[in-house]
């Protein structure tokens, strides 16, 4: 089901405003779970059924393509069916609101703020032990030996990357395609997070998910870096642009380096760099040319930058919505 931009931009703008104000209500999470959890349950079933250890690497790759088709196709089919029925029985303006409410469940402005802010609170109240425990909730790396600088860098990297793929990307896809666009993106992104890594079990099976996620996140990562640069103090924008230009292409991810380099450039830090994942050292390039000795005060500054970037994104969506509605 295709919608004009005079519908999709208002959907994205309203979704961004609603989610920023309300987040995902805990009572709703307890009652019915979360859409990402539903997609995750489908991925787990397909992983068990199609990713068999006796299959060859080539067959696993083809099974991964089939799984990805279902991971994306099933949620899209359900979404299309519900929207089709809704537009038959409800007026179009009301359905625009329905799309916005559903789309806001796929955005994470408020929860990302809360999770990253919790790292700073834990560091201040409970020291390194508390900080390590809090940051372990939002990153996949080993946190047991991180010092304060390592904890703060990990939290800021998560803040920057998730600003791109947890906020900018679903809203961008919603702005173009409405709720189906956000559902498509979230299905791909969830698949990548669950099976799109290089662990022996998923190196072949998750290949298609990883490649498609790289493609669908490409425009959002650039837009996220742009929002972070705009949100920076005027005197730091040139340094942030230079950090993105110089360092983003050196990141092992084609997308994560853009918001991470922008964040590093604004805060005068070095982010990313070498780290441990399950006792395996990953020698990533550094983003930014500042100090690696990040402090909890830098985390505070990063959160301020993040909130400003979210405000800029919401403002852009609102302006787009008004323009497309006026010219429709």
Proportion of strand residues: under 5%
Going across the major beta sheet, what is the strand order?
1-2
Q: Structural class of the helices, strands and pairings?
A: mainly alpha
Number of strands: 2
Residue share in helix: over 70%
- Overall pLDDT confidence: 94
Question: What is the C-alpha radius of gyration, as a whole number of Å?
Answer: 20 Å
Order of helices and strands: HHHHHHHHHHHEEH
Q: What is the 3D form?
A: globular
Number of domains: 1
Distance between the termini: 19 Å
* Helix segment tally: 12
Q: Which stretches are low in confidence, meaning pLDDT under 50 for 5 or more residues running? A: none
Task: Walk me through this protein's architecture.
A hairpin with a 2-residue loop joins strand 1 and strand 2. The protein starts with a helix and ends with a helix. Strands 1-2 form a two-stranded antiparallel sheet. The longest helix is centred in the first third of the chain and has 33 residues. Helix 3 packs antiparallel against helix 4 and helix 7 packs antiparallel against helix 8. It has one domain. The chain has 12 helices and 2 strands; from the N terminus they run αααααααααααββα. It is globular. By secondary structure, it is mainly alpha-helical. The mean pLDDT is 94.
